[in-house]
Amino acid sequence: MGLVEVCVMAKISINLATGSIQKEDLIVGIDLGTTNSLVAFINPEGNPQVINDTGKGVLVPSIVHFNADGSLLVGNEAKGYLITDPSNTIFSVKRLLGRSYHDLENHQGFFSYKIIDDDTEGLLRVKVGDTFYTPIELSSLILKELKERAEHALKTPISRAVITVPAYFNDSQRQATRDAGKLAGLDVLRIVNEPTAASLAYGIGLNPEEEKTIAVYDLGGGTFDVSILNIQNGIFEVLSTNGDTFLGGDDFDRAIVDYWITQNKLDYSELANNQTLTQALRLKAEEAKKALTTQHLFNDFVDDIPCAITRITFEELITHKVQQTIDCCKNALQDAQLSIREIDEVIMVGGSTRTPLIKQTVADFFQKPVHDQINPDEVVALGAAIQSDILAGNRKDILLLDVTPLSLGVETMGGLMDVIIPRNSKVPTKAGRQYTTSVDGQINMKIAVYQGERDLIKENRKLAEFDLKNIPAMPAGLPKVDINFLLNADGILTVQAHELRSGVKQQVEIKPSYGLTDQEVEKMLLESVQHAKEDIDQRMFIEAKTEAEQMIYTVKRFLDRHQNTLSETEIKDTEQSIKALKDAISSENKDLILKSIDQLNEFTRPFAERVMDQAIAQAMKGKAIE
Q1: Of the listed 137, 145, 179, 218, which one is catalytic?
Q2: CATH code for position 449
Q3: Is 499 annotated in the active site?
Q4: Is 482 designated active site?
Q5: pLDDT tens-digit profile of 279-318?
Q6: Residue range 112-138, pLDDT digits in tens
Q7: Hey, which residues does 100 pair with through a beta bridge?
Q8: Is 372 annotated in the active site?
C-alpha cells in the first residue's frame, strides 16, 4: 500500500489592523460614562490602548439622537442636536439606569426629553415621538456604537467585553448595564468598578515586592466614587468604597447655568418651556468649565445673553459640592480603618478632576501631590482593557478583589434586618445563616431581602421577597432553614433557601425593578452613623419584645396542652405572669421586658420540668432498660 498525502487546512484569523495572528476574539474594555464613553483593547505589544476610529476621537459622547424618519445618530454626530432638537436627543442616560420615575422626579428639569411617569415603582421609560425606550435600550445603542467603532478600527469582530460602572451602582443598575451589553450584542464577562479599573491602569509595572495603599478619587460627569485599595504582590484589594451616584461635572455645569440665569435675571418658567435655550446654556456652561481649568476668565454669549464667569466665582459655586466628595473620602478612610498618613498614592480619575480647585482640595486633604499622569478621561477604559486581559488568561500576576458597598440581609421578626453579607465584604462571596419558624404548623416562610446599613428594615432598601413553600408542618422552632447569599463578581445577588429536614429548596436571582433614590444614596451611610445609638437601642427593644412575644406564645400553648396536669393555682399564677409580661411590652422599657421574661421563665420552669418527667415516665412504662 502506497503512502497517501493528506492535506489539512487550518483556519487562522489575522488582525488586518495590526498584522498579527488573532488567536481568538478580542475582549475589549468599555467605560460607559455619563457624559462620554470609550473603548480600549490590549495591543500586540501587550499594552492597553484606547481606540480612535477614523479620527473621530477617543471619546464618544454618550448621546443618542432620533431623527424624524426613525433613524438615529450616536456620539459626536448626535451632540449638535442637543440644541437644535433637544426633545429627541437623549443624554446622561447612565443616570437613568435601574431607576424609577420617583427616583428622578425632583431632577426632571435637568432633562430636555420626556421621562414617563406611569405612577408605579417600575423602571422609568423615555418617550421619543410615539416610541417608548427603557434606559437599558438607550444604553445599548451607545454600547453598540462603541462595538462598531472597535470592529471598524481593529478589523475584527468584537463579541466580548468588560464594562465598568461606578462603585456605588446597586444590584439593579449593574444588572441593567449587563442587559444593555447583551442587547448590544456583547457577552459582558465582567462588571468592574470604575475606581478599581483605574487602579489596574496605574498598577501595571508596580514592583511585585512593593506594598502600597492607594486612594482612587473618581469624579466623572454624573457620579463620584472614592476607593481605598491595597496593592501587594500583584494583588489589588479594595479595602473600602464610598461615593455618590448623583454628583459629578453635570452639577458644576448646572451651577454655572444657575449663576448666569441669576445674573441676567432670566425667568426659570420661561426657560422650562424653551429647551433649545436651556441646552445652549448648559453646553456653554460645560465649555466655560473646561476653559476655566487653564484660564481665569470666560466671556461669551448665548444669543444675546452674556455668559461671563471668573474662576474665583466658579470655585465659590462648587465649593460645597467639592466638600461633599471630601466627606466621602473621610468615610472611606474610616471604613478602611486607615489614617491619611497611611495613604501612599492618590489617583485622580474622571474629566471633572481637571478642575484646579478639585486637584488642590484633594491634595490638601490627603497631604500629598495627586497622580494624574494618565489621561483621567481614558484611565478607566485602559484599566478595563487590562481586566479583559486578565480574564483572557494573559496576565496571571494580577488578582483582583472587590467589595460590596452596602450590607445585604434578610428581614427577621419585629422588622429587623439581619445582615448576612456585611458592607465592604470581598466579592465574589458566599455567606449564610440558619433560621426557623415562629408558629406551629407553619408551611411557608416569607424571605425578604434588604440592602442598607440601618438596623430597621423600614430604613433600608427592599431588593426582593419570595416564599419558601411546602415546608412540612412541624412545631415552631423545629424546621431548619438555611438561607445562603451568593454575590458574584458583578455584584448580582442570588438567594437560596433550603429546609434541611424536608429538602425543600427555593432560589431567586435578585434583579430589582428600580434603583436607589437620590436621598437614599446620599444619606444612607451618613444616617447609619448619625442614628447608630438610636438604632442600637431600637434593635435591643425589638429583640426583647420579639423574645417576649415568643415566650407568651410558647407558655400559652403549654397551658392549653397540659391543663390536666397543672393545678388551678399554677394556671392562675402563670396567666398573671403572662399579663405582667404584656404590660412590660406596652411600657416599651427594654430592661423591664427582659426582667419579666426572666420571671416568667423561672416561674414556669419547675412544673414544665415536672410535666416533662411525667411524659418520659409514661413513655418508658413497661420498657426494660438494657
Answers
A1: 218
A2: 2.60.34.10
A3: no
A4: no
A5: 889 889 999 999 999 999 999 999 889 999 999 999 999 9
A6: 767 765 444 446 778 788 777 778 889
A7: 123
A8: no
